[in-house]
Design a protein that fits this description.
heterodimer, A: about 425 residues, alpha/beta, Rossmann fold, Dimethylsulfoxide Reductase, domain 2, 3 domains, five-stranded parallel β-sheet, 21 strands, about 20% strand, globular, B: about 140 residues, Barwin-like endoglucanases, 6 strands, about 30% strand, binds iron/sulfur cluster
């Protein structure tokens, strides 16, 4: 068979959702990827490694092959029997699959949480309090003359962010790197920091202090201290001057801000800083979302329940109280009595105590790959890769919706998340209604 | 044996991001996450060379990983461990009411683990998560 080249393929790794990949397919296999970053080509060329291809179910202590039908039936009965099943993951699947997941949680009276609760949860809490001024990445590309990355290292975590959307991109009004200033604020001199015009190194866990001092400086207040967070007041004032004097500024922030001490308070401080700056110039702020559709998980859950993550259906209506109804808290308190994990690997990512509880309750995982979570599961349902083996829509980090494509067939017999979840929902309904 | 106090940062690294796509059981993924970047002075202080194993302990747990030279500049007193199963063993589940556990800025103790092995995914899962008996579904 001859090779087929597909252009404008959307990458399904990080929240940048780059849509300019060129993929060569030979004999229903991806053999070449152009325009991709290392993470993306890793996935595009490695998607066939370590796959789950056969539904499995634990008998005694070993996993034995089974059928989708049987596995779905047992899964349905397990979650119906539970008093508070947890439905977790969702950031590496399509909006369509997430929507069915929400239905399933509502139907069975469980908790519905996505990986936001362990990445940008604090961001969302901050936005609830202050609100945010945002825009699309396209607008930043064309207009921004000053870009800040705070607690974010795009060279490693979002490798094409700078070249496609910010300082290294060619926009209509900002043509090149020399038309834009890059400021990096971090606790260490990262590879992104090395490219910065101004690098501000702060002491770990002092983001809040620095953010507040910077806001004071922007407002023109006097700061009665020599240093804040290890940064001299002169430097802070100089930085404030730069921010005020730009025409269009964009502040991107990452987990360095959401995960260090202060968490949602850091984000509130960042949002307030941007509000302050908007009284003097134009400024926008945006979280650097990690997994390709974590933003979709928030959006879909919001249009269906009113809340972006950590939704509690145990009382028959949606409730939301992150810190109480979020996955890590629930598990650390030993609360859920079964869990369905979709496209996520919490055993690798959750703190030990939370992961430990997951492995002591019936654990069912829908995932394309063998992961520590599937290895600890009682039931494994293999699934197809969204954006490679099946279509599905996704939200880019700035909220633009993109429709991903199917490029090749999934491994023989393997179903999509949408197929598996619909069958499961149908089975649950037939057993409960 | 000398122990030192450090602050543990965890985060994404390009190699972790790339290798995780190769599969979480792959040798390259193991190498990219079961490691710890340490400043040159700090590693000297605990009597190790890069490539030898170190034990990281926090109030939440303890884990052995391999030391590597910092890929990005790292100050004294700070260590960096990429996201993954290994760092999860020493992370805490308190979320301060936000839902978000602490993965950055955890105070930790470092000591030489020259004679100990870094556990593989399989071994680590067995050690940390082995179920007594699979619950009947
Ligand atoms: S930057 Fe992100 S979206 Fe773009 S190609 Fe790389 S992994 Fe994919």
């Amino acid at each position: 068979m001859s090779q087929e080249v597909i252009s404008n393929v959307i990458c399904t790794v990080c929240g940048c959702s780059c849509d300019h990949l060129q993929v060569t397919i030979d004999n229903d296999k991806i053999v070449k990827v152009k325009n991709a970053c290392a993470m993306s080509s890793g996935k595009m060329l490695g998607y066939r490694n370590e796959r789950t291809t056969q539904p499995m179910m634990k008998k005694g202590t070993t996993l034995k092959p089974t059928t989708y039908e049987r596995a779905i039936d047992v899964t349905a009965k397990t979650i119906i029997k539970s008093s508070s099943p947890l439905f977790y993951g969702w950031s590496l699947t399509s909006n369509e699959a997430i929507a069915i997941g929400v239905d399933l949680a509502e139907e069975t009276g469980g908790f519905f949480d996505n990986t936001t609760s362990t990445c940008h949860g604090p961001t969302i809490l901050g936005v609830h309090e202050i609100g945010e001024s945002s825009c699309t990445l396209g607008e930043i590309r064309h207009r921004a003359d000053l870009v800040i990355y705070w607690g974010s290292n795009p060279v490693h975590a979002h490798p094409l962010h700078m070249s496609r959307y910010t300082v290294m991109s060619k926009g209509r009004f900002r043509k090149s790197r020399s038309d834009r200033k890059l400021i990096v604020v971090d606790v260490r001199k990262t590879d992104t920091a090395k490219l910065a015009d101004v690098f501000i190194q702060l002491e770990p866990n002092n983001d809040y202090e620095l953010m507040v001092a910077l806001r004071a400086a922007v407002r023109g207040d006097e700061i009665e201290q020599e240093t804040v967070a290890g940064v001299s007041i002169d430097k802070i004032e100089e930085l404030a001057e730069m921010l005020i004097n730009c025409e269009f500024g964009a502040l991107f922030f990452g987990l360095g801000l959401t995960m260090s001490a202060g968490k949602s308070k850091n984000i509130e401080a960042a949002l307030s800083l941007v509000t302050e700056l908007n009284s003097k110039t134009k400024f926008v702020i945006m979280p650097m979302r990690g997994h390709f559709n974590v933003n979709g998980a928030n959006n879909v859950t919001t249009w269906l329940t009113g809340y972006p993550y950590a939704v509690d259906f145990t009382q028959g209506f949606p409730r939301y109280n992150p810190g109480e109804t979020s996955a890590v808290d629930l598990l650390a308190r030993g609360e859920c009595d079964s869990a369905l994990i979709v496209a996520s690997d919490p055993i690798s990512n959750f703190p030990y105590q939370a992961a430990k509880h997951l492995t002591s309750i019936p654990l069912i995982t829908i995932d394309p790959h063998i992961t520590p979570t599937t290895m600890c599961s009682n039931i494994i349902l293999p699934s197809a890769h969204v954006g490679i083996e099946t279509t599905g829509s996704t939200y880019r980090m700035d909220g633009v919706v993109l429709e991903t494509r199917k490029l090749v067939d999934p491994p023989k017999g393997v179903k999509t998340d949408v197929e598996i979840l619909s069958a499961l929902l149908k089975r649950v309904k037939s057993l409960t209604r | 044996m000398k122990k030192i106090q450090v602050t543990l940062l965890s985060g994404r690294s390009l190699s972790q991001g790339r290798e995780k796509e190769q599969g979480k059981l792959s040798e390259s993924y193991f190498k990219s996450v079961a490691c710890c970047e340490i400043n040159g002075e700090d590693i000297k202080e605990i009597g190790l060379d890069y490539g030898e194993n170190v034990r990281i302990s926090t109030k939440y747990g303890t884990v052995v990983v391999k030391t590597t030279a910092p890929k990005q500049t790292l100050e004294r007193g700070i260590i960096f461990v990429p996201y993954g199963l290994w760092v999860a063993q020493v992370s805490g589940s308190e979320t301060d009411g936000t839902g978000m556990p602490s993965y950055k800025g955890i105070s930790s103790t470092l000591e030489s683990a020259k004679k100990e092995k870094v556990l593989t995914v399989d071994q680590l899962i067995k050690k940390s998560f082995s179920r007594k008996k699979s619950k009947k579904l």
